[in-house]
Amino acid sequence: MLSNVLNALTSSPNSKLSHVTLQTGTQQYLGPIHDPTLLTQLVPRDAPFIEDYPRLPFPNFYYALEDILASYSKSLTYSVHRASIIIGSSTRSYYNSLLTLAVYALVCKHQNYPFRYVGNKYSWEHFWDVSDARVLAEQQIWASVTDKAKNEAFNCTNGDVFTWKMIWRVLCDVFGVEFVPFDEKVKFDVVEFMKDKGEVWDRIVEENGLYKTKMEEITCFGALDTVLKLEIQHVCSMNKSREFGFHGYANTLKSIPEWVQRLREMKILP
């Protein structure tokens, strides 16, 4: 698809296309973690992830996309932006982990269920990062107008780290649910738990006069379950970005309440 689009846009002698921005992610360093046939074979790169790590020996459409862009480097410039878990606001964001966690928290609150952590002990205690959508947009604009950033790949995260234990306390405060410490003796499967909660979400939407969404359209419990059960420290190095002149950042623990407020203003969340 990307090849067809670029071919169409560059084939005209009057084409004004000069720069292409490609957004990928940390599967660049992890491999195809959502492919159950390969997941147990993957050996992720060591954290913090750096942009010039060699490619992993597994199929990865990120690699194919980068190669396609590079093949057009004589007629245009490009930049690659490798995001972590992205948090932001949208009426339809299947892979918005914050919206997924928000729906889970609100269902727990509505039905008086404990708001249990959905990952494992390793991710609960070890360092992670995320990408605020505003920082990601800023970096993409910066790269498109900065000569030395052309034809380069950059990690893009908030620039800080956290444990999911810290995030869970923030979510509990934002949504008014009780903090439940992680207990590895309690076996909990968020995908199984949420699979029959669509009607509960429908009631929450109706009772609060929200923009009509279906739970399956705005959540990604399977993907979140996979990611938060990885036994890795998910941290990207932002050194290359800083060395090239990009200094955007966000305070993750502060940005989460800001995005929740935005989703409330959009009438996606109560």
Describe the structure.
The chain is built from 13 helices and five strands. It has helices spanning 2-10, 27-30, 61-70, 97-111, 121-125, 133-145, 164-175, 190-194, 198-207, 215-218, 221-227, 239-244, 252-265; strands at residues 19-25, 77-83, 85-87, 130-132, 152-156. The chain has a three-stranded parallel sheet, sandwiched between helices. It has a two-stranded parallel sheet with strand order 3-4. α7 packs parallel to α13 (252-265).
Summarize the structure.
By secondary structure, the chain is mostly helical. Helix content is 42%, strand content 9%.
Set down the secondary structure blueprint:
Elements (H helix, E strand, L loop, with lengths): L1 H9 L8 E7 L1 H4 L30 H10 L6 E7 L1 E3 L9 H15 L9 H5 L4 E3 H13 L6 E5 L7 H12 L14 H5 L3 H10 L7 H4 L2 H7 L11 H6 L7 H14 L5
Parallel strand pairs: 1-2, 2-5, 3-4
* β-sheet strand percentage: 5-15%
Binned, the helix content reads 40-55%
Total strands: 5
Average the pLDDT over all residues and give the rounded result.
Answer: 95
List the defining traits of the structure above:
single chain, mainly alpha, two-stranded parallel sheet, 5 strands, globular
